[in-house]
Amino acid sequence: MKHKHLLLAVLVTAMWGFNFPITKLGLAEINPLLLTALRFTLAALPWVFLVKRPQVAVKWLAAYGLIFGVAMWALINLGIAMGVPPGSASLLIQFSAFFTLGWGVLLFRESLSLPQLISVTLAAMGLVGMLLGVQGAATMLGFALVLFSALAWSIGNIIIKVSGVREIFAFVVWASLFAPLPLVLLAWLLDGPQAFIALPGQLNGVALFSLAFQVYGATHFCYWGWNLLLREYPVSRVAPLSLLIPVFGIVSSMLILGERPGVSQWQAMGLILLALIVGMKKGRPLWVRQGGHA
To answer: Where do the EamA domain residues begin and end (predicted)?
Structure first.
């Protein structure tokens, strides 16, 4: 990988990692669902008038917008608001890799290798370790929501694969149009008009910085950069770099929010990181399903 592209990869993963504690700063001011709605409104407008619509059916744009905006990021924000540490959230969202493995087996008749099975086992052990250290029912629910968001991300990956889209940046911009309205309706149903009445007074400097970082950094710049890397290099060379996201997420949460994970939490997070690393290893399939491929 060229030095400039390696630097881009580190910058993208760092911004995605920093996005978790910076999102927490915004959640301290704004309702989680409204913050998510604002993020995707600004991700879509006015950019849909400047970026040509990708050559895919509207159903794929709508499906991805609802999955990415409502089922993924709204759940992450709700989970963090309920007490999930942002560093832990940045790691838990990587469970999308294991869910994607499962979809590959179920939908595309792919076969698992021994390293992949070992990685799933290690990840399960790490997850149990993290959950054993959770205090309070609200935080436990928050962890469940973040895990559901990882499942949603894996479904989003399948949508991109099935749709055959090539223009990922344009796809994200146009798909973002479908997220704000459901998020606003959910905020009204769950929290009533009070969240909307309080919003103007909550848009202070910290909240606006958090929102701008989420939109223009974590969404626009990072998806452009990641797509460029995927275009220039094999997926097998780019994908392992995503392991840097939880590393930056945990370190930045310590720096920005003063998070201090306990020994058992470090052990659990270490197991999950090890699982992700092992899962990247190539191996022969343990079995080949009819119509499948290694």
So the answer is: 6-131, 141-278
From start to end of the chain, where are the E strands?
none
Q: Are 240 and 259 in contact (CB under 8 A)?
A: no
Q: Residue 160's closest CA among 225, 103, 83, 80?
A: 103
Confirm if 152 and 100 have CB atoms less than 8 A apart.
no
In terms of phi and psi (left: phi > 0; alpha: psi -120 to 50; beta: otherwise), the region of 45 is beta
Closest CA to 82 of 127, 32, 138, 6: 138
Alpha-helical runs (H) found in 82-113: 86-92, 96-108
One-letter amino acid of 228: L
282 to 57, 94, 96, 113: CA distances (angstroms): 35, 19, 19, 8
Share of the chain above pLDDT 70, in %: 89
Q: What are the CA-CA distances from residue 66 to residues 84, 181, 246, 255 (Å)?
A: 23, 10, 24, 33
Question: What is the reported pLDDT for 293?
Answer: 42
Per-residue pLDDT, 294 = 38
